[in-house]
Design brief:
It is a single chain. The chain is mainly β. It has a single domain, classed as 6 Propeller (Neuraminidase), CATH 2.120.10.10. It is built from three helices and 26 strands. It has a four-stranded antiparallel beta sheet with strand order 2-25-24-23. It has a four-stranded antiparallel beta sheet with strand order 3-4-5-6, with no helix packed on it. Strands 7-8-9-10 form a four-stranded antiparallel beta sheet, with no helix packed on it. A hairpin with a 7-residue loop joins strand 5 and strand 6. Helix 1 (about 20-30) packs across helix 2. The two termini are about 30 Å apart.
Length: about 425
């Protein structure tokens, strides 16, 4: 069993505030976790900036819950599946940016739209587009957004990065590229090629690269991705690092299994209450299910460059024995007790919750208002981490009804906790 910090109820019973009283401030006093302290300071700073923005820049200062607000309804001439694979980022000033795969008719070449919300996800407006500037292929699959919170590689704090898969119309090649915006998503510049692969077909014996995810750790920017280029493995998960956003390290393998047909993929990372990092992924062919499926596994490590050394764990809900299947997202909130709350999303509607620091025997499934979708995106709101944003864009093809929607819920309400 994975060790976790024991929690003690207050005299009034199980009662938590939206900022979870005990974990952050107890650690501040003991100085046992500088990274969590830094995160708490960043959270307070973001809240102050958001409050100032509400007075000066037209930002809404209070969050509210809502269900399945429509962001984008594709025109009838969009091709199947119309839209897919949404991603969001919350900037340091409180605004939200969102993007997704856009299946617009070609020509012109496909691009990633950039939408913005200034009112906590209630309403959205298109403010930019990210176009392929170097390959003449288009930006087709698997966008990911990330904001630099400190100066990095000559780019100022507040720069927004986008990693995505540039793929020609005939799907003959895959190329994960990196772009940057210094005006909050309005305009973009190409920075570098990261990884190149073969045809964009998710079959064994093909050699594409897929599904980028970005994280900064110490002085490295890490880019994780699914990797089919090995002749010995149908698919692995790899990462590369950079210190200048231009030049990339050699490929490091994070997850690989001896059976050729096993397919780990779709990496996603979050930091936990104790400063460790949790790395979720799907594992096609995992042994816990007798038929071939993609249950969600995870690993936990202190250094997010060393997940290869961490043991596998999997999610199986204690209320019903449900294995979440494919396309994981994971986030952590300080709400919910001294270990906070880990939230994992899969292809289905329920959310999978763990309040024991990732203990594999402590997963519980909860219903969510946002419909099941392929790789729904989760985001804990920085101004109040009781609020969880969920963005969906429909299911894998065939699907002619996909659209981009967003929901906001409160974790304390989902978990049945009282607020102070």
């Amino acid at each position: 069993m994975l060790p976790y910090k024991r929690c003690f109820a207050s005299r009034s019973g199980e009662k938590v505030s939206s900022y979870s009283r005990t974990p952050v401030f107890r650690r501040v006093a003991s100085r046992r976790d500088r990274r969590v302290v830094a995160a708490a300071v960043m959270m307070l700073r973001s809240a102050l900036i958001a409050a100032v923005g509400a007075l000066t820049c037209g930002f809404a200062s209070a969050l509210e819950t809502f269900e399945r607000n429509l962001i984008f309804q594709p025109p009838d001439n969009y091709t199947d599946p119309r839209v897919l694979y949404p991603r969001t980022v919350q900037l340091d000033d409180g605004r939200l940016l969102g993007t997704w795969e856009n299946y617009s008719p070609e020509p012109p070449l496909v691009w990633f739209p950039i939408y913005e919300s200034l009112d906590g996800g209630l309403t959205w407006e298109e403010v930019g587009q990210v176009h392929d500037q170097v390959n003449n292929w288009g930006l087709r699959y698997q966008p990911f957004l990330y904001e630099l919170r400190e100066d990095f590689a000559g780019f100022p704090a507040g720069t927004v990065l986008l990693a995505g898969n540039s793929i020609p119309t005939d799907l003959s090649e895959t190329q994960i590229d990196l772009y940057a915006s210094q005006d909050k998503g309005r305009t973009w510049e190409f920075l570098s090629h990261v990884a190149r692969g073969g045809r964009a077909i998710p079959n064994n014996e093909e050699t594409p690269v897929w599904e980028p995810f970005i994280l900064i750790f110490e002085d490295d920017l890490i880019l994780y991705y699914a990797d089919q280029r090995s002749a010995e493995h149908g698919q692995e998960i790899s990462h590369q690092t950079t210190k200048d956003l231009k030049n990339w390290s050699a490929v490091v393998t994070d997850v690989s299994y001896p059976t050729y047909t096993d397919r780990p993929g779709m990496p996603f990372v979050t930091q936990l209450a104790n400063g460790d990092y949790m790395y979720t992924f799907e594992w096609g062919g995992a042994p816990i299910i007798p038929t071939y499926a993609f249950p969600i596994y995870y690993r936990i490590a202190k250094d997010p460059r060393k997940f290869a050394d961490a043991p596998d764990m999997y999610i199986n809900s204690t209320n019903g024995g449900v294995f979440p299947i494919n396309s994981p997202n994971v986030v952590w909130s300080p709400v919910g007790g001294c270990n906070g709350t880990i939230v994992v999303s899969s292809n289905s509607a329920p959310l999978f919750i763990n309040r024991r620091g990732g203990d594999p025997s402590a997963w519980v499934a909860y219903d969510s208002p946002e419909a099941g979708a392929y790789t729904r995106n989760l985001r804990i709101m920085e101004e109040d981490p009781d609020y969880l944003l969920i963005m969906g864009a429909g299911v894998l093809p065939p699907s002619t009804t996909n659209k981009v929607t967003v929901s906001m819920l409160k974790l304390t309400e989902l978990l049945g906790l009282k607020q102070a």
